[in-house]
Amino acid sequence: MPTAMTVLYGSMTVQTLPDPALVPLALMFWIHDSGSNLLGALCDRDSDRRGGYFTYPVLYGDEATVRGLIQFYAGWVVLVLAWPVFFSERVDLVAYYGLIACAIVLGWISLRSVIRAPRPIARAVGLRAHEIVVIERIILGTFLIAAAGRIELAILIGVPSLALTMLARRLMRRRYEPRP
Q: Fewer CB in a 10 Å sphere around the end CB: N or C, the chain?
């Protein structure tokens, strides 16, 4: 939800109310964030169970969680692919679909690793899948800038964000996450 609100509130920096054309994209970000959160909950399933937290993976198990991940993935992909059908005059379609293709492929790689993992899904598998989703999210966070014709600005924001995120992950995760 925070990313969805950022899209809508961010548009209000240049106009009084959010552009209605951004609502489907805000919904796409909301669905994507929900899937990412569910994947994170899957990673924490065992410790949540021990701690008495009744998260979705704890209550319903790996199979139901994977089905939910598939549904979230399908939902955001459909929205992001369909949006330019209605609003194509606003974007550079080559930049839009080029970056979206990268995000979709990364999302599929992440999802596929979880789908194919033996049950119960090992924490290391979930963590690796989540790392891919984080990279995907950075692409999603910059693709609209590129699609609006500001490719250099998207690169200026996206590349350092990606580099800093990967560096922070490497430095921080080493201290508290298991090695795959």
A: C
Residues of the chain with pLDDT under 70: 1-2, 7-13, 174-180
Residue 79 confidence (pLDDT): 94
Rg (CA), the chain: 17
Cα distance between residue 26 and residue 61, in whole Å:
29
- The whole-model pTM stands at 0.87
Whether the CB-CB separation of 64 and 79 falls below 8 Å is answered with no
3 state DSSP class of 14: coil
> 13 phi and psi, to 5 degrees?
-75, -15
Amino acid identity, position 22: L
Neighbours of 123 (CB within 10 A): 17
- Cα 150 from Cα 145, distance rounded (Å): 6
